[in-house]
# Entry
Amino acid sequence: MSSALRRWIAGGGTVGLLIVGVQVLGTTSASAHSNNVAGQAQCQSNGSYTVTWTITNDYDLSETATVNSFTPSGSSLSANSVDLAASSQGGHSATISQTGIPGNATSASLEMQGHWSDKYSQADHGSVSLGGTCKVQHTPTAPTGLPGKCDASFNQVQPTITIPSDPGVTYKIDGTARSAGTYAVDPGKHTVDASSATLTLLPPTSWNFDLAAPPGDCNTTVTPEKPNVTQSVCDNSTHKPTNPTLNLASTLGITYSVDKSAPYTAGETVKVTAKASDGYEFKNDPGSPWTFVDKKTETLTLTFDDAPDCIVNTTPVTPDVQQSVCNGHVPTDPTLTFKNTPGIDYTADPSSGWKPGDSVTVTATLQDGYRFPASLPSGWSLSGKDAVTTVKFDAAPDCRGTATPENPDVTQSVCNGHNPSDPTLTFPKSEGIDYSVDPSSGWKPGDTVTVTATLQGGYKFVSPLPNGWTAATATTATKEITFSAAPDCRSIIKPDAPSLTEEQCPVTGTTPIAPTLTLPITVGIDYSVDKQPPYAGGDVVTVIATTQKDYKFDTTLPSGWVRESDTVAKYTVTFAPAFTCGVPSNPTLTQSQCPAGSTTPSAPTLTFPTTADVVYTASPAGPYQGGDAVTVTATAQSGHQFDTTAPSGWTFVNATTETYKVTFDASPSCSLPVTPTFSDDQCVGHSPSSATYTIPSTTGVDYYVNKVLTAAGKYTATDGSTIKVVAKPQTGYTLVGTSSWKHSFPATPNCSNVKSITVARAVFHNDECVHGSPRGATYTVPKTTGVSYTVNGKKVSGGTYRAVGGSTVTVVATALPGFTLKGRKSWTHTFAQTPKCHHVASKHVHKVPPAPLANTGVPTARILTVGIGLLLAGAGCVFLSNRRRRTNG
# Structure
């Protein structure tokens, strides 16, 4: 069998797939040399067709095929020729793309001229049927809806729906076509649909609105203000009361008026009326000073205070009196000086020539605008409109010289060796006095003598006379002097005080050292005690001092000694009460630190120890902050003392006081790392975007991506890769909260059949007080088909979760395979601190079912997964061709 015959028997057809409703057609020639030209069309998003032509060599020689022609005009080819290998073992093919085919075209064709290596050439033709319905893809602009409201003129405005200007798109409100513009609608639910005859619209193409009605009343509530009232006061220049004044307030939306015009008089009553302007109204407030008439009118009744009494009270003042005094031996005349008193003129009767012992009447006369008080000062009385008082001058002084008798100097009997001497008497030299004595001489110890003082001319005795002198006559005074008894000429001695050492704490240990008593050594005295050592704290010991021969005790002994007789004295020693010994304990310090989930460092604390018989205090007393210096003082209580050696860190001040100084560490700088965000590769239209991750900028924090320090910013990730982000503190900072995140990016999505959806937002609620207790902070992750949510980098299901007061939560939405997202995809919220609630008794408490913990990831609702089956149908066409036999081999 010839090779040509074998090729004819082996001749076959091609199978084409019917894709998106486009038919694939191919033709071959009857020659043994031939190309099969077959095309496959696809509608593009820009509204044009693209045909991919496959040229297959059906002969066992290599060839070059060139383009002869193609339709429709205006389109373009990716190449003008292709090279094809021999096909003895099967068809070898190449492709050429034809682009820019109008969307309304119904067919496309391509003719190729084959040039085989044996110099044979043949033209082969292929065509494709097109639907003529390829349109530009377009996402319609969303309409907007606004609820009813009150406008600036306080008028009710109905709800509105605004249709955007979007060329090629037709919008219908509740089935009625509307051009671009804003339309008033009734309150309630409405649907807007978008359609197009020239565009292929991408969802969404329908929007639902539920619009509220405007408020029932557009008036603004206002509150009238009281007018500014100035009461009647005294005019100091005229001593008359002024008129009161009234100034109306200025309040937006209110007009004020008064039923009477100025000037007003003290004690007068007026009525102020407040009228609400258009768009404003009053609220009936029972506690308001205004009287509510209706929503547009309120009144206020005001009564001015009575006029003040402007007559000035003035009080008469008694004049200054200078009494008669001695000028040498002559008395002077007295004087009278009037004081300057506002509103009063003073006169005197008689007006001058006053002598000692005279009486003078002083009259106070009021000036205009003044009056006397209801009660006059002591000594003053009213006489008609005047006030009068009487001044009585003292009698003239006695200007004679004054003589004062003085005691004579007495020399008592003294020891002259062992014999007492006689006493002596020496008279003083006193002005105006002569002295004499009876008997005049021969005085002995124990004698009594009378001294007489006689006045000289022009003198008088001082009154009263000095102690011991007695007036005998108008010119004489006497005093008795008794000489002391003969002295005791024995040697006089005084005992010395014993020395004692009180009980004290030892240098080490807690057993007190016993007190001691040491007797002195004194010439002429023997000492003894009524109790022998050893002594203890609180002991009482009596020391007895006894004089030796030829000695006696002085009448006045040193402090502490009691004289029993000339020869015996006693001294009582009482040792201080017994006590226990000890040392203070160190206080406990809690330094400032960063609490979990908060960037505010906690306050440091100081805790006192518990030590028997010791009280601790601190200065300052606190509360404290980082870096504060504090002095702790330990004070020993009654019956307790400190060892003389203080523990380490303590300073010994005295037996009952020790101090300890501490300085708190500086407060740390707390930093809460912001959660990085991860964005998986998503479909944008029908093409994949790029997977990304964003490193935040956080004060005090360095971020490492797969152990590499990475600056803040947005980075591209590889689909199918896994990265780990770790937050580490910078120098001087302490991290709180989550510091490590791991994310696995999925493989590149298949975007040939994706659905675009709008992301539902996360909802956050701060903690607040409910029935006197904190309700708890929460956040709600929505349930949206096609969306996966993470909280602080951890995947969670839709539901409501509890949050810690003061913490920060970041919720991120990413698209699941087969979906692309529109709208906002990330929300970050920092919760307020848990409030301090005051408990309020309540009869009913409605408990909220417990929400899942934020760190467990357990959802509050089930997720329903819907599977979608895809069916791909294809059709094959068999094209048969007859090969003719070559006649010349």
